[in-house]
Amino acid sequence: MSQPIRIGIAGLGTVGAGTVKLLREHAELLALRCGRPLQVVAASARDRKKDRGVDLAGIRLESDPLALATAPDIDVVVEVIGGSDGVARQVIETAIAGGKHVVTANKALLALHGSTIAAQAEAKGVILGFEAAVAGGIPIIKALREGLVGNRVKRLYGILNGTCNYILTTMRESGRDFADVLADAQKLGYAEADPSFDVDGIDAAHKLALLTAVAYGRPVDFAGVYVEGIRKVGALDIRFAEELDCRIKLLGLARETEHGIEQRVHPCLVPKTAPIASVDGVFNAVAVEGDFVGQTMFEGRGAGAGPTASAVVADLVAVARGHGLPAFVVPAARLASSPGSPIERHRGAYYLRLMVLDRPGVIADVTAALRDEQVSLESMLQHGRARGPDDTVPVVLTTHVTEEAAMRRALQRIAGLAMLREKPILIRIEDL
Ligand SMILES: NC(=O)c1ccc[n+]([C@@H]2O[C@H](COP(=O)([O-])OP(=O)(O)OC[C@H]3O[C@@H](n4cnc5c(N)ncnc54)[C@H](O)[C@@H]3O)[C@@H](O)[C@H]2O)c1
Ligand SMILES: N[C@@H](CCO)C(=O)O
Ligand code: NA
């Protein structure tokens, strides 16, 4: 058997400890599959005495993660510290500069600096693996880079944040409101103490930016992702969606349009019959439509020690086998600088919920605003009369396909109507 591939793990948290566990439990199996052992030589730990539930015997513990990036006895550094700048970036860039391969789960960092780091890795002839950074255990980066590489991707979309999917699923099943379910998710340890990266769509946008780069061979463009989170989705919207035979999901979507590549993350109404509509709880899923393959969908766990370690180890095996593919499908210098399409050019159908005073003429005013912007209505839902003391009733309108800019102009007028009691809720309807 050949020489072992020598690994240094920076960060022994959930993912780091999970990776050590997998590598230990499957040491023989992996050695056979790689033709050489995968050996963890060293790891960085801020607290050396902490019990992480894994056997660290024989692993050198460094207090400074940068020591791993410069250690002569390490071939590949696994960066699982996290954070979009600071020490994680330093560890990765130092390791690459020293000719070491890098495997990372850090989507926040790669979404901002991925193209630069990929270019550095290529210049040094080392591999940059980031399967764990997108949809955790689902091997979607490998699917796009290898299995689907013969296709032009017409469209891809996915449930890329397990916390949001758990919250939306629980809201639907229990009828409870967003804030209430979020508090539960935090107690259960699903959502972060500061949940904004999850619920405001930022984590999903990081992942979408990486998927788009791999699917379309263009530089990672996080700033080009239009982002909305799920805070505004109410229990009422979930009920109305059911009535429209839809589910509400936070999706990340990318597609080629006549104006360029569109990237968006926002809550969507999707038909109940679409396969992705029944991906519930903490599960993630990614659908890819290729011109030759047609529709494909990958489903699995996007987070947690086991699934994420599974992805990290897949990248380590690629390193051990010497499979050095360009990080974003094409060499960094040849990434196409195709334009991004702004959200105002988006074409789609819309769900609009208005809380209005129950008075004659209100709907006439609303539909006049839509008519003036050439937005065509598909349906309207209103049940009975307002009963509460505030005399307010929800009205839901759905539109035919229209341009976002027109919808926004109409919405601005509607938002100014005196009969409107709350900010209108606009959710895009996806044709999946
Ligand atoms: N947890 C998941 O399910 C999951 C899934 C996909 C991707 N990721 C990504 O993996 C990375 C790690 O996530 P995690 O959940 O394991 O986080 P974590 O907080 O459990 O672990 C991070 C570890 O890094 C250590 N650390 C922080 N600063 C350090 C420093 N300066 N020197 C040495 N160690 C330091 C912390 O002590 C901690 O042990 C993040 O980028 C995250 O986004 C996590
Ligand atoms: N916070 C992420 C997990 C790590 O990617 C999620 O909820 O899906
Ligand atoms: Na993955």
Automatic annotation (TrEMBL):
**ACT domain spans which residues?**
351-432
GO biological process annotation, one example: threonine biosynthetic process
PROSITE patterns for the chain:
ACT (PS51671), HOMOSER_DHGENASE (PS01042)
Q: Which UniProt keywords apply?
A: Amino-acid biosynthesis, Methionine biosynthesis, NADP, Oxidoreductase, Threonine biosynthesis
Positions of NADPH binding: 107
Quote the record's binding site residues for L-homoserine: 192
Q: What is its EC number?
A: 1.1.1.3
Q: Name one GO molecular function term.
A: NADP binding
EC main group: oxidoreductase
Q: Which CDD domains does the entry link to?
A: ACT_HSDH-Hom (cd04881)
**Active-site residues, record numbering mapped to chain:** 207 (proton donor)
Top-level taxon:
Bacteria
Q: In which pathway does it act?
A: Amino-acid biosynthesis; L-methionine biosynthesis via de novo pathway; L-homoserine from L-aspartate: step 3/3; Amino-acid biosynthesis; L-threonine biosynthesis; L-threonine from L-aspartate: step 3/5
Residues involved in NADP(+) binding: 10-17
Name of a matching Pfam family: Homoserine_dh
Q: Which family does it belong to?
A: Belongs to the homoserine dehydrogenase family.
Q: What is the name of this protein?
A: Homoserine dehydrogenase
Q: Which organism is it from?
A: Vineibacter terrae
